[in-house]
């Protein structure tokens, strides 16, 4: 059971953009890592874009399960895990991360923020803590 990606995104009026993300691509071949990470970023944005506000969903994409939670305020979280990882744990993690993120990062920064400009460093810790 593995977690591969944990992303926080903002679903604004025009489109979804990534605010912060953490990846664990250590199980992949060195030469595949960047393309796997790009795939996970793209998939996270696509799933968040297609999910209505106030919804939770689990979507199977290739050999991964993508768990998405879009809050009513537009903040969204996506966890990409393998098929064996418990769904309930993923949504608990998303709840915790989005609550903490919304307390630490100003709502004004969500609209124009990017991974380079948002200062929130807890994602890597959560990703490693929730590995089974």
From TrEMBL:
One of its GO terms (molecular function) is SNAP receptor activity. Its main location: membrane. It holds the Pfam family Longin. GO terms for cellular component: Golgi apparatus. Keywords: Lipoprotein, Membrane, Methylation, Palmitate, Prenylation, Protein transport, Transport. Residues 8-127 form the Longin domain. InterPro entries: Longin-like_dom_sf (IPR011012), Longin_dom (IPR010908). Signal peptide: none annotated. CDD domains: Longin. It comes from the Eukaryota. GO terms for biological process: endoplasmic reticulum to Golgi vesicle-mediated transport; protein transport. Coiled coil: none annotated. It is found in: Endomembrane system. It is a lipid-anchor. Belongs to the synaptobrevin family. This is YKT6B protein.
